[in-house]
Amino acid sequence: MKKIFSVIALTLAMLFLFTACGNGDSDEGTKSDSGSDSNDKLTVNTTVYPLKSFTEQIGGKHVDVKSIYPAGTDLHTYDPSQKDIVNASKADLFIYTGDDLDPVAKKVADTIDNDDKKLSLQAGLDKKDLLKDEHHHDHEHGDDEHGHDHHEDADEEHNHDHHEDADEEHDHDHHEDADEEHDHEHEDGEGEEEHHHHHGLYDPHVWLDPKLDQQFAKNIKDELVEKDPDNKDYYEDNYKKLDKDLKDIDKKLKDVTDGKEDSKVYISHESIGYLADRYGFEQKGIQNMNAEDPSQKELTDIVKQIKDEDAKYILFEDNVENKVTDVIRDETDAEPLKFYNMESLTKEQENDDDLSFQKLMNKDIEALEKALSGDNK
Question: Where in the sequence does UniProt note compositional bias of the Basic and acidic residues kind (predicted)?
């Protein structure tokens, strides 16, 4: 009798064990099938903030997006460790502007052997869409010479409406005379990036041009669809909303620059070349405004240049020291206006869940409109 009870007890114990294991497997399967597990999301690493914002807006709940740049990063001086580079390459997809635009991102891309896991947005552009980067190592010095010299051959045709008929096709015909020069310099200049304070061959600030952004957004959407075809309709719908916003930004910029051909906009660092080129105004840098800790002589020189130029407004970027803007207010008649170049976010901005490229760009448009009202020519 004892033997019978022992057999029954053993059988019940085994049944209980199998049932428990079965329930555990079922729970895991349910979690995976529901898509609620974060592992079901595409992991995406990006570089500058606009690319992160575009990817988040298009990918929504199906993506987990991070920027490889820490808060407050200056794209021109950021020097990641080898560990940073390796960690940045660990994602389903790495999105960056391009090898000729971001040498740091190129280092990350070079560590990714699988071409399907990286997206260079430059690859979707024609080289004539890109402006040469002429300040290289001396990005804090000599800026006052850096107007529209990079397109001297095209300046005669550089009227405010030079894009109106071609915008939808994105031709940029006004650069044709400069293409051969761009191509030759690209061939001769590769490998120079290490000697130029992390500048590539071309002006890196492509993300401030809403027409180029429309192409970037489409490329990002197409890549997400290719990686995750089951959610194609979701990505397409989100992309259409973003594309409409980018077209609205383009229209606003046309409106605020209308009649402002060849007007000068003074800025702490020449990051608005693509806007100046597309919408027909001239950017002019104020030397040393972006210096990390400007000396008294540098502050004196800043004040002198502003007075000599009779500048009414100065756009300044996030990384400009408060003491610089305070000196400008105290020692000149110019008004400093904050401008967001969006290379990276501040820690405060990173904690703002409602922040987007569109919100920052609309603030920039307001600042640009005011800067253009100074009628500096």
Answer: 135-187
Together in a domain, 157 and 237: no
Amino acid at 54: F
Give the CB-side neighbour count of residue 69, counting CA atoms within 13 A.
26
Find the DSSP H helices in the chain.
Answer: 2-34, 49-59, 82-88, 103-110, 176-189, 210-227, 232-257, 273-279, 296-309, 322-331, 347-350, 357-372
Q: Tell me which DSSP letter residue 113 carries.
A: -
Q: For 139-191, how does the pLDDT look when each residue is reduced to its tens digit (9 = 90+)?
A: 444 444 444 444 444 444 444 444 444 444 444 444 444 444 444 444 444 43
Question: What is residue 70's DSSP assignment?
Answer: P
Q: What is the CATH number of the domain that holds 58?
A: 3.40.50.1980
Q: Are 107 and 80 within 8 A, CB to CB?
A: yes
**Cβ–Cβ under 8 Å, residues 271 and 341:** yes
Instruction: Kindly state the DSSP code that residue 132 receives in the 8-state scheme.
Output: B
CB atoms within 10 A of CB 338: 14
pLDDT digits (tens, 9 = 90+) for 63-80: 999 999 999 888 778 889
pTM for the model stands at: 0.76
**Helix-, strand-, coil-residue percentages of the chain, each rounded to 5:** 55, 10, 35
* 235 and 310 belong to one structural domain: no
Domain that holds residue 92: 40-126+207-246
pLDDT tens-digit series, residues 233-276: 999 999 999 999 999 999 999 999 999 988 999 999 999 999 99
Q: Which two tokens stand for residue 306?
A: 């502003």
